[in-house]
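Troubleshooting log. The previous run stalled partway through. Resubmitting the same two chains, unchanged.
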Amino acid sequence: MTSSFKGPKASRRQFLAGAAAIGAGAATGARAQTPDPLITEVQEWAQGLGEGVDATPYGMPIRFETDVVRRNVPWLTADPISSINFTPIHALDGTITPQGCAFERHHSGAIELSKDDYRLMINGLVDRPLVFTYADLERFPREQHVYFCECAANTGMEWAGAQLNGAQFTHGMIHNMEYTGVPLRTLLNEAGIQTEGKWVYVEGADASSNGRSIPMDKALDDVLVAFKANGEALRKEHGYPVRLVVPGWEGNMWVKWLRRIEVTTQAVESREETSKYTDTLADGTSRKWTWVMDAKSVVTSPSPQSPITHGPGPLVITGLAWSGHGKIKRVDVSTDGGKTWQQARLASEAGDKALSRFYLDINWDGSEMLLQSRAMDETGYVQPTKAQLREVRGLNSVYHNNCIQTWHVKSNGEAENVEVS
Amino acid sequence: AYADAPFGLGRPALEEEIAAWDLDVSPDGTGLPVGSGDVFTGEEVFIENCAVCHGDFAEGRGNWPKLAGGDGSLADEDPLKTVGSYWPHLSTAWDYVNRSMPFGNAQSLTPDEVYGIVAYILYSNYLVEDDFVLSNENFTEIVLPNADGFIIDDREESEYAIWRAEPCMENCKDTVEITKRATVLDVTPDEEVTEEA
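Second attempt completed without errors. Output:
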C-alpha cells in the first residue's frame, strides 16, 4: 500500500450534488411552491418514440447506472491478471448478484474456453477413468440451487484497521447466484470411487490450475459441477463453460474452467492450500483447511458509497447476511456502535448457504450513528466483533475476516468506515 | 428411476491423456517424474525465466512474490512468508513451478529445469549448499523448516464453542469511541467519473 490516490473526489462531488437536492425539492411531504414542470410540461418520452425491440439483442443496464460496476484496487496485487475486483454491493438490493458486475478473482486471467474444446477428466482411484465432453455433462440429471461464493480474502484488508472506504471494497468479494449443474457425486459414481479414495483433487484448465483438495464427504454431499448461473451460461470470467460450486466454502475452492477431478488417498497440499489459504495465528503457527465461511453480514446502505441524501425522516437500513454453516436465523442492527441492538427483518425465507437480505426501517432524527449489523445462523453462531477475532487469531490471518463492520454516519448523511472500541 | 446407476456417459480416459493432465505431486513424492537438477544449472534457468519478477536471488522485485527470506518472522508484526520461511512441503514448490510458472508462459519447463529451479530456491533460502543436486531419488529427504507449522482448522473448539451464545441486546457497553478511520489512510480508489456519460 505504497501508493495513495489523490485524484478528484468524484464520490464526494456526487454526495454534495445529492445534498444540494435536499435543499431544492426534498422536504418530505411538503407542499410544492410552484408546479413541477416534469409534470406540467409534456416530456419528450411521453410524446416521441422509444427504441425498437431489435435495438438490443442482449442489453446492458441503462446509462444512469454506470456507477454500478466492478471496481478494482490496483495496489492490492502486483498486476491485474492474478488479482481481484469487487461487486458493487452498496448499490444492489435483493440477493441475486447480476453476473455482469459479480466479482472476479483470477490467478492467471479469465481464459476463453469453448464448449467444443472443453474436456473434463476423472481419474485416480476410480474403477473407470473417464473423459466427458460438455455435451455429456448436459445429459446427467441436474439440480438447481442458490449459493454465495465469498473469496476467503473478503474483508482481509481490514484486519489491521479500517482501510478501504466502501462496502464494495470491504465486503464485495462475493456473489450469489442460482446455479444449475450436475452433483459431483453423480460424476464420481459414474467413474466408480474405490474404497481408498478419501479426497478429490480438483483443478482448472487455466495456467494457474488453482488445484485444491476436497475431502470425499463434502464431494459426495452438495458440491455441484455447474454450467448455468442465474439462468444462462456462466460468464467467461466465472468459469465458462463449467465451474465447481462448493456451497458454504471459501471461494478459492470453486474451481473455474474445471478440467480434472482426481480421486486420491491424501490431500495434495497444493500451493493454494499451503502458501495461500492458510491462516497464520499470533504465535506463528497457521491453520490449514479452513474451508467454511463463517456467519457474516454488512450494512450495504447507508454506507460510504451510499450516503443518506434525503435528510431526516424515514430511512431504510439494509444489508446482506450469510453463513457457510447453513441458513441465517436472524440479523440484529445497532445504530449506536453496539450498545443496543434491535432485530432487523429478513426480506424472504433464508436460503441455505446463500445471501439473505435484511431491512430495518427507522425514523432518522438526523443525528450521528454508528451502524452495525450482527448475523446469527441456524447453528446459533453469532457473528463476532473484530476484537473477538483478533483475540483468538491475532492480526495476520489474512483470510476469513467475518467481523462486525461499523459505518460512522454523520449528521449530513455521509458515512465512513471506522473501527470502534 | 436411474438413481445411482452409471449412465454410460463419457468414454474411458487413455493413459496418454491422464499422463498429460495428471501432473500433481504430493508431499510423499507421488507424481514426481524421473530427473534431476543442480543449483548452478538452476540458477541459470532461474535468471533466464524467473528473475525478472522474483529477483536474481529469489528475493522478489517490486510487488512480486519473494521466494526466499523471512525465516523466523511468522510471529512478527509483518511476517514474510516464503518457500523457506513458510511452505511446509517441497513437493508444492516443484508442482507449482512445473504446472503454473513462469507467469504467462506456464508448462514451458522440462522436469530437469524444474528440479534445477527448486534446487536454486532451496539454495537461496540457505537450505542446501551450492553443489547440491536435487533429483526424484533424494527429493523426499528434504524437510522444509516450517513443515510442522500448520494445524488443521480448529475453529469448532477455539471459536464456535464460545460464540454460539445468546447475544447482548441492551446496555451492552457503556461507551463507544471511534478508534480507526479509513479516510485517514485515504487509499480507496476514486470513482472514475461516469456521471456525464
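Takeaways: Chain B is about 30% helix and 10% strand. The two ends of chain B are 56 Å apart (CA to CA).
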